[in-house]
Design brief:
Layout: E1 5-11, E2 34-35, E3 38-39, H1 43-52, E4 57-62, H2 69-83, E5 88-93, H3 100-109, E6 113-116, H4 121-130, E7 136-143, H5 148-161, E8 165-170, H6 178-183, H7 198-212, E9 217-221, H8 223-242, E10 248-249, E11 254-260, H9 263-266, E12 275-277, E13 280-283, H10 285-290, E14 296-300, E15 306-310
Parallel strand pairs: 1-4, 4-5, 5-6, 6-7, 7-8, 8-9
Antiparallel strand pairs: 1-2, 2-3, 10-11, 11-13, 11-14, 12-13, 14-15
Helix pairs in contact: 2-3, 5-7
Length: 311
Amino acid sequence: MSGAKSVVFATGLCSVGCYYCPISPQRKSRDVVYVNDVAVESLRDLVEEVAASMSEGVGITGGEPLLVLDRVLEVIKVLKDVFGSRFHVHLYTSGVGLTEEIMGRLVGAGLDELRVHVVSDRSLEAVELALDYPVDVVVENPAIPSDSERLKNLVSTLSSLGVKYVNLNELEVSELNFDLLSLKGFRVSSSGRSVEGSREVALEVLKWVEEAGLGLSVHYCPALYKDAYQYPRRLLRRALATRRVFEELGYGLVKWVEVECYEELEKLVPVGLVFKFGSTCFTHPRVGASLELGRVVEALPLTPRKALNEY
């Protein structure tokens, strides 16, 4: 909820091909690396972005991160070396390619938690394998409408295996999966973020787990959670860490006033009210309002800043 974890998108490559995959066309099936919204080319870039976001941990995702195992191992080791052993790292996988050797290497690199998206019996075998290692093992699956009985059977199986944690995600709608979801008869909810009926299925499973007295924790994650809490709070942390003196903080955004320099305005540079870069002057929105200056730029606190609005 505090946005204290960065998302390391290790690769867009994947061998499973779930019809509900929400990954954007810019990333899907492409071997690219992102930290949050920033494309990275090196481990140095990765570490700098994690630091700029004031993160206390990362989630490594994809695609299928195990398809680029050496890259993932290097990422885990570097993050642990730089930020310390308490820096928390979890990794998402379908488990299809997981072996004893790979699991040992992941744990040796410093992995704290494995989150398995169960797509087949092979995924369940991976869960069972991972339970023998000193990491938290979580199963994370979407709550698909009309799929409550399958989810209940899955949770029951996981409970018998000794799994302690299950996440049920509200089934998200994106530009990539919209057509396939529509072809399967699903409808978009009023929020525009998710599929109708997904929430109801998740809550039905939660109620069933409670009534059955199963000894594991099941959590429901609404699609709204990422947009309204996780994402903007992560941006706010980055804004706090990278704020320039002339920027005003919003909820996950930064604002400043940007104008063409002129002589009277430049007189405020020595006293720190205006900052000049080339022929452009920058100042805080409150200073800009008092001087009746325009234009206000509103941007994501990325490096470089990503302007969203001007007014």
